[in-house]
Design goal:
By secondary structure, the protein is of the alpha/beta class. It has a domain of 74 residues: 5'-nuclease (Rossmann fold), CATH 3.40.50.1010. Strands 3-2-1-4 form a 4-stranded parallel beta sheet, sandwiched between helices. The mean pLDDT is 95.
Length: 125
């Protein structure tokens, strides 16, 4: 088990909607929580008004932010070539998975089916 975890967008959405206390629990366990620009943009894109956007920006500020160097795009490109036709890896998920691999993190997601076919990817239990 790694104490450095990239949180998928679905985790942040649940937290923003008050459906989960998981992030607070992980923070209390000294787990380092990360997001990348793709996750941040996916989350902010869901805002329906200025108040929601401000709430989401406060949530985003609670995380360590990772940059996406060229290596992330190189790894994502390879995964897209390998997994886009079957089982259907999408661009955002490829960039999220590549970030996890490049930075040596684990991925915390509700949507494990979107990632479990990538053998080198470690999913948080």
């Amino acid at each position: 088990m790694n104490n450095r975890v990239l949180c998928d967008t679905c985790i942040l959405i649940d937290a923003a909607n008050g459906r989960s206390r998981l992030l607070a629990e992980l923070h209390c366990q000294n787990i380092q929580l990360f997001i990348n620009p793709v996750i941040e943009l996916e989350l902010l894109q869901g805002a329906r008004n200025k108040a929601e956007l401000q709430q989401l920006e406060k949530l985003v500020a609670m995380f360590h932010h990772l940059e996406m160097p060229t290596e992330v795009f190189t790894v994502a490109r390879s995964m897209i070539r390998q997994y886009t036709l079957s089982p259907g890896l999408r661009l955002a998920d490829a960039l999220i998975a590549a970030t996890v691999l490049v930075y040596g993190l684990e991925l915390l997601t509700i949507n494990q089916k979107d990632f479990r076919f990538i053998p080198e990817l470690v999913l948080w239990d």
